[in-house]
Amino acid sequence: MLEAEVREAYGDLRRALEEALEATLRHHRAKEALEAAIAQGILAGEVAGRNAEEREAKARALYPTLFQALLEAEEALTRAKFRLEMAKARAREVEVLASLAAGRGEAVVLE
Questions:
Q1: Residue of 4, 20, 1 lying closest to 87 (CA atoms)
Q2: Which has the minimum average pLDDT: 31-45, 70-84, 96-110?
Q3: CB of 76 within 8 A of CB of 27?
Q4: Which of 36, 90, 95, 107 is most deeply packed, by most CB within 10 A?
């Protein structure tokens, strides 16, 4: 039974790592898309203002979909990082359980 728990915990950890990678890549792509649109808007004179706050307000009005995509990507990344930390904690927990079981002389076979 312990072997199954260890395998499950490390399977969950692998999946969480993959999810975190995908979320990180989606976040980077969303950020790059927004930054590119803003840069084009500045060059075209569409994103203008006396200061950074005015330019950001103009950009938010012009590119709400890109700002929303970035927000959603940031939220997904935060959730993925949380799941990764939970998976790491579970993997550590089953490692300790396996170590304790081995210390009591119980057979622990990890393949």
A1: 20
A2: 96-110
A3: yes
A4: 90
pLDDT digits (tens, 9 = 90+) for 65-91: 999 999 999 999 999 999 999 999 999
Structure-token pair, residue 52: 């950074």
Question: What residues contact 58, with CB distance under 8 A and at least 6 apart?
Answer: 41, 46, 47, 48, 49
pLDDT band for position 2 (cuts 50, 70, 90): confident
Distance CA 51, CA 77 (A): 30
- Amino acid (1-letter code) at residue 16: A
Ramachandran sector of residue 108 (left: φ over 0; alpha: ψ -120 to 50; beta: rest)? beta
